[in-house]
Amino acid sequence: ELKVYRDGVEHPLQIRKLSWTSGQTEKNGYEHFMLKEIHEQPTALRDTLASYPDGLPGLPVESPERLLLLACGTSYHAALYAELLITSSSNVSARAHVASEYAARTRGNSEGLVVAISQSGETADTLAPIRALKAAGHSIVGVTNVQESSLDRLADTVFLTKAGPEVAVASTKTFTTQMALMALLAAELTDDAQVASDIRSGLRSLPGKVEQLIARSDEIQKVAEWLAGFDHAFIVAKGAQVPVALEAALKLKEVAYMHAEGMPASELKHGPFALLTPETPVLAMVPDDENRARMVTTIREISARGAPVVALVDGESADIAEFARTIVQMPGIHGSLAPIIYTVAVQLISYYCGKARGCPIDRPRNLAKSVTVH
Ligand code: M6R
Predict the structure, then answer these.
(1) Beta-ladder partners of 95
(2) Is ligand 1 within 6 A of the CB of residue 119?
(3) Hey, whose CA ends up nearest to atom 8 of ligand 1?
């Protein structure tokens, strides 16, 4: 029996049952929680997508013209992915913003629909602007993995990711399920029925493709063990893969203690080229999309400066193999969803790299799972 009192008066309790079980927070034979959580992604994606068989109905603003996405860290990368996907597939003007740098505005409805993304639902830097925007009359959509979290209670509409409890400090399954929800949101907002149908059918095949990739972990582990011998790395991509490059850099920093920078491929020649040497490996995302030719040119330019390239490729790779040290062959999927699969690959690379470097993978120094202070 549990009784709660407020100022000496018993406060009525509303009991709600959560679907999580204590067994989900065990390592279940895995060496680290991070590896277990990477492997749980096919199930996490299936469970999340199964919760929204009819898409994302009930948006508080029907047909919004503008969308503001606020989040921090890895969740910000999901926001950025959403921005790129939504702006390229609909007329909605979507903008992702690092929540801590968003100065709350009170100019009526100028922000349109506001979406807050936070796996924990407790990140202070995200909650602060959301509270201000809500007070200014904006409708808030929350995307979180934790039922009954502050964000869940604050938002007008909540879309839960069904990743189950995530114990490792580094976000993995909560990120890919956020990305899947953002793809559903893009399908909801586009008025092009073909685009929506392509996204939805691609999402149905996504968990199986992630399984195919995870089954090739040995190959990825070899690349990671080689990468572990360096202290600096660059990760480059174009289009909707840019958030994956940023996420790869974040993951390498936190779980492998490696200095890594992610950036749009073309930015290399605006400065970072000066740093390229045989001691600065570059990971390049080369999906089979409209950016492929530009990525191949970038790889040639990098290789000409002596830096070794690891190319993550789906589709044809013969022209890349000539210039790359290693090719990691990725399962193909509908273009806009490829970043989700590539994310799983960079998670595995970071994990095995951290392991080879002897890092405390699940609990990196100085970091907390949920950052509840400004
Ligand atoms: O709980 P949140 O998604 O709001 O957390 C935001 C960041 O602190 C978080 O994504 C952090 O960057 C990751 N744990 C890194 O893996």
Answers:
(1) 68
(2) yes
(3) 73
Phi-psi region of 315 (alpha: psi -120 to 50; beta: other; left: phi over 0): left
Side-chain half-sphere CA neighbours of 189 within 13 A: 27
Q: What is the mean pLDDT of the chain?
A: 94
pLDDT digits (tens, 9 = 90+) for 244-288: 999 999 999 999 999 999 999 999 999 999 999 999 999 999 999
Residue with tokens 């990725």: 330
Amino acid, single-letter form, for residue 151: L
Residue from 60, 82, 61 nearest 71 by CA: 82
Q: How far apart are CA 333 and CA 203, in angstroms?
A: 9
Range 186-195 contact pairs with CB under 8 angstroms and sequence separation of 24 or more: 186/82, 186/85, 186/86, 186/89, 186/90, 186/336, 187/55, 188/55, 188/56, 188/59, 189/64, 189/67, 189/86, 189/89, 189/90, 189/92, 190/89, 190/90, 191/90, 191/91, 192/89, 192/90, 195/89, 195/90
pLDDT of residue 111: 67
Q: Considering Cα of 187, then 314, then 219, then 243, what sign does the dihedral take?
A: negative
- Mapping DSSP to helix (H, G, I), strand (E, B) and coil, where does residue 10 land? strand
- Tell me if 134 sits within 8 A of 140, measured CB to CB: yes
The number of beta carbons lying within 10 Å of the beta carbon of residue 368 is 11
Half-sphere exposure of residue 83: CA atoms within 13 angstroms, side-chain side? 22
CB of 338 sitting under 6 A from ligand 1: no
Is residue 224 helix, strand or coil?
helix
Write the residue with the smallest CA distance to atom 1 of ligand 1.
Answer: 120
Ligand 1: atom nearest CA of 371 is: 8
- In this structure, the number of other CB atoms found within 10 A of the CB of residue 317 comes to 18
Tokens representing 188?
């909801």
Q: How many angstroms does the Cα of residue 225 sit away from the middle of ligand 1?
A: 26
Contacts of 50 (CB under 8 A, 6+ apart): 162
**How wide is the angle at C-alpha 297 spanned by C-alphas 276 and 266, nearest 5°?**
60
Question: Closest by alpha carbon to 22, among 165, 169, 171?
Answer: 165
What is the Cα 257 distance to its own chain's centre? Answer: 19
